[in-house]
Input
Amino acid sequence: MQIFIDADACPVKTEVVRVAERHKIPVLLVSNAWMRGPDHPLVQRFTVNNHPDAADDWIAERVTNLDVVITADILLAARCVAKGAKVLRPTGRSLDQDSISMAVAMRDLHTHLRETGEITKGPAPFLKQDRSRFLDALETAIQAIKRRGQG
Output
C-alpha cells in the first residue's frame, strides 16, 4: 500500500504524512515542479516534466488497487478508480465506481459553463471542516484496504 498525492495544489500534504506515519505507509508526492513538502522518511518526492498531464500520467501508470490517491483532478481520479484505487479529494470526498461518472459529468458541465461565461467564480474556499472530513476519509480508506488485504 502506498499513498499517491497529486501534489501541485494539494492542501493536505501534512495531514497525509501524519496518518501515513501512524500506519507506516509510504507517501509519494508527485508534481510538475520541485516543491517543498513534509520532510519525513516515508515521503518520496517525484518531479515529472512540465507537461500539464505528466504528474497524472505518472500516478495513473503506477497506482494499484491497494493504493490511495489524493487528488482534486477528476480525470486523474477516474483513471485511478478504474484501476481499483481508493481516491479522495482534499475535501474528504471519496470517489469510487458509483460516484465517478457523475463527478466527470459535473466537471464537464462546469468547464462548459466557464467557457460560456456563465460561471465566473473559482472553487469554494478550503475550510477547516474539509480538513477534518479529509482526515476521517483517509483513515477509513486505509482501514478498508487493510481489511481487503486480509480477506
Remarks:
- The chain has one domain: 3-150.
